[in-house]
Amino acid sequence: MQESFNIASSSGSYSVALGSDLLAQVIAAHPDAIYMIDERLESVLPDSITKRILITANEISKSLECMPEVILKLRELGANRTSHLVAIGGGVIQDVATFVASIYMRGIPWTYMPTTLLGMADSCIGGKSSINMLGYKNLVGNFYPPVDVLIDMAFIQTLNEEQVVGGLFEAAKICYARGYPEFLAYLQESPAYPMQADNAQRVISRALQTKKWFIETDEFDQNERLLLNFGHTFGHAIEAGSDFGITHGIAVGIGMVVAVEYAKQAQLLTPVGISHAEHLISHVKALLGEGLKRVVAHPPRIDLALIMEKFNNDKKHRTEAYRMVVPKGDGNLVLISAPKTDAVRRDIELAYQSGLAAIAYPQG
Amino acid sequence: MQESFNIASSSGSYSVALGSDLLAQVIAAHPDAIYMIDERLESVLPDSITKRILITANEISKSLECMPEVILKLRELGANRTSHLVAIGGGVIQDVATFVASIYMRGIPWTYMPTTLLGMADSCIGGKSSINMLGYKNLVGNFYPPVDVLIDMAFIQTLNEEQVVGGLFEAAKICYARGYPEFLAYLQESPAYPMQADNAQRVISRALQTKKWFIETDEFDQNERLLLNFGHTFGHAIEAGSDFGITHGIAVGIGMVVAVEYAKQAQLLTPVGISHAEHLISHVKALLGEGLKRVVAHPPRIDLALIMEKFNNDKKHRTEAYRMVVPKGDGNLVLISAPKTDAVRRDIELAYQSGLAAIAYPQG
Questions:
Q1: Alpha-carbon distance A233 to A324, whole Å?
Q2: What confidence tens digit (pLDDT) does each residue in B36-45 have?
Q3: Beta bridge partners of A326
Q4: I want to staple B124 with a disulfide (CB 3.0 to 4.6 A). Which of A51, B40, B90, B114 is the partner?
Q5: What number of helices (H) and strands (E) belong to chain A?
Q6: Which residues contact B166 (CB under 8 A, 6 or more apart)?
Q7: Coil, strand or helix: which one is A41?
Q8: Would you call the peptide bond into A194 cis, given omega within 30 degrees of 0 as the criterion?
Q9: What is the DSSP string of A303-341?
Q10: Do A169 and A250 touch, CB atoms closer than 8 A?
Q11: R_g of chain A, CA atoms, integer Å
Q12: What is the CATH number of the domain that holds A48?
């Protein structure tokens, strides 16, 4: 069953549709568009689609240094100011498409079809791009939402358990960030692997409808929307510290566990707050699995000194203070600034230690 | 005497101030900002300003390939999401600053101080950037206005006659585009070289207040604002066809002459329209000067075949039709689509011939 809703943005409203067979609808609606697609998915395009830009879904492809090559392809395919771009793929394809569509001839309209659960349940709305530059991860980027987002449930079946669980962590993050009642309502939709199309659509719909509130309230990431960084500052350090051996979605789940441990360490939570935050953590742990059923069968050993270095260098911090999204009081999220003192650094390190121990990931 | 007004934009309103001593005010207000400045102007900065990025004002500096180097300097100077960028210079510096400020950590606030008349009277508001890529001029760009624009009349005295006249052509274009009465009112401000500070401020203020209507009515260049391309499609071909021996501002003046010739050739004008358009042309011719008083003392010989090739490749055209801003009827500007037929191409070529003849520029 198809459903749709709109997102308001400063550059006009855009639509989000969820359902089956949407790829066929896009192709029928845009036979002459330029299709930018994850090279591994190229076979979903019919032969009638001849204007194609294939993207390898890796960190190099989403670097500023690689943009001229992609834009040159647009030019060679004859794109002008009225051309339409259709992007099909996960986060890297979304980042490249957002950035390129925003600057090609000062902006062309585009359609996005996310193919990962992380894209479907979270990043496909909000209009952000994150672009690497000269080895700095996500140093540049911008805001340029597509004119429509079409989420075809058929792509769910192409995802493995790690990809689904990573996406579910972002979905859980959004709902928990909105408040404990929203998180409880989300859990009613049975977010777990494996997912069938109808189950997936309900989970994705709830996450996106919740995220809609954040991005309509704070489009440019100045206030409320910053709460959606929950799990990210702690998680990015794990991603980078494992040399990306731990994927973004999984790292966000672990990052939420560490953030809760930090809040406990720094005594920010009331007993009610602890019970709400622990409920989230038990959900994360259940999705990560244990023993032979672990999603990441052999997690890499995590070097705490390296993690702390990566954490220190995160661009979200200020010169004098760490900026972290953590649960506080009765468990609602807040953005806190903690001075860069030895005591705070020790709390952060202890939070990593106890967080990684809680999920039985090796550290050293 | 200082004056100021606001411009409304989708990302919030920004202020424009005109007056003297504004550079000193900016430096007092932003002692810790990062200053991006035309390297030829560096001496205007006091020693207390230590965070500097020097830009060579040429076409290479505003290419997408050069952006990583500039952004790396921002990073090395310690810029974070709350850092402020102050850009001081002409069009190239504005283009680089707009683009870089828009994407660095997804956007940082910036202040712009234009130092050319073209920047002061036209491009400093509207928020556009134009960036070259792999040899394609202005193929990419975006919209990202500064938080304030400060126009210090002291910079007027650093400009030569060709630079002043080029800026006046853009100012005349804006006022004519708004309508013949606005153009007559503009002429009352005595736009001519040399200009004193008070005279310059009145000319600039009138041009900007007129442009304000266009960009507030049509921020993203979809309808009314497109009329400000008057002189540009014809002019860009002259710029490119002379290998940039004819500067942008001068080329826009010549482009307006050619556009009027086209309208006459294609019989688009009533007798009233011809008289209004001729009034503009006589203003352009007066500014270009003649004989020994010519602004461009030795204009390069213009190769018509090359000009036609450049005109054909302009990115503003559609696949099937040329798009041109020309006076029509009683002389008001319109955006027309003319089919790419031999007859239309002949009219365009004849317009170039008679336009260049009217200003006594050599052609062949």
A1: 7
A2: 999 999 999 9
A3: A334
A4: B114
A5: 12, 11
A6: B117, B118, B247, B248, B249, B250, B252, B253
A7: helix
A8: yes
A9: -HHHHHHHHHT-TTS-SSEEEEEEEEBTTEEEEEEEE--
A10: yes
A11: 20
A12: 3.40.50.1970
- Nearest-Cα distance to chain A for B307, in Å, is 21
pLDDT value, residue A152 = 97
Q: Which residues of B touch A134 (CB under 8 A)?
A: 68, 72
Residues B43 and B112 in one domain: yes
Let me know if residue B364 belongs to a domain.
no
What H or E segment, with its residue span, contains residue B250?
A: helix B248-265
pLDDT at B1 over 90: no
Q: Find, among B277, B264, B271, the residue nearest to B348 by Cα.
A: B264
Please, is B346 exposed, middle or buried when counting C-beta atoms within 10 Å of its C-beta (0-12, 13-18, 19+)? Answer: exposed
Contact state of A142 with B68 under an 8 Å Cβ cutoff: no
Q: What percent of chain B has pLDDT over 90?
A: 91
DSSP state of A194: S
pLDDT (tens digit per residue) in B129-162:
999 999 998 999 999 999 999 999 999 999 999 9
In a domain, B332, yes or no: yes
Flag if A105 and B141 touch (Cβ within 8 Å): yes
Closest to A35 measured CA to CA, from A97, A124, A103, A119: A97
In a domain, A364, yes or no: no
Q: In whole angstroms, how far apart are CA B328 and each of B264, B337, B341?
A: 9, 13, 20
pLDDT higher than threshold 90 for residue B11: no
Question: Would residue B363 count as lying in a domain?
Answer: no
Pick from B68, B134, B142: CB nearest A106: B142
User: Is pLDDT at A192 greater than 90 in this prediction?
Assistant: yes
Residue B363's DSSP bridge partners are B302
Distance of CA B145 to the CA centre of its chain: 15
**Closest among B289, B247, B255, B294 to B91, alpha carbons compared:** B247
Angle at alpha carbon of residue A221, lines to B84 and B88, rounded to 5°:
20
Closest approach of chain A CAs to the CA of B291, in angstroms? 40
Residues A67 and A79 placed together within one structural domain of the fold? yes
Give the model confidence (pLDDT) of A116-154 as tens digits.
999 999 999 999 999 999 999 899 999 999 999 999 999
The structure tokens 């804006």 sit at: B174
Predicted confidence at residue A315, as pLDDT, reads: 82
Q: Which residue type is seen at A116? A: T
Non-local (6+) Cβ contacts of A271 within 8 A are: none
Q: Do B107 and A220 touch (CB under 8 A)?
A: yes
Helix axes B232-241, B304-312, angle to 10 degrees: 130
Question: Is the CB of A64 less than 8 angstroms away from the CB of B71?
Answer: yes
Nearest by CB to A136, which of B75, B82, B220? B75
**A82: number of Cβ within 10 Å:** 10
Same domain, B188 and B301: yes
Overall residue count recorded for chain A in this entry: 364
Q: How far is CA A22 from CA A8, A83, A101, in A?
A: 22, 21, 22
pTM of the complete model: 0.93
B8 token code pair: 């409304």
B261 and B136 together in one domain: no
Cross-strand bridge partners of residue A321: A339
Q: Which residues of A touch B128 (CB under 8 A)?
A: 106
Q: Are residues A202 and A102 in the same domain?
A: no
Distance CA A334, CA A356 (A): 22
Three-state DSSP class for residue B41: helix
**Chain A residues with at least one Cβ partner in B under 8 Å:** 10-11, 64-65, 67-68, 71-72, 75, 78, 80-82, 99, 102-107, 128-129, 131, 133-134, 136, 139-143, 220-221, 315-316, 318-319
Q: Is the dihedral of CA A78, A80, A86, A91 positive or negative?
A: positive
Structure-block tokens of residue B194: 């040399």
How many domains does one find in chain B? Answer: 2
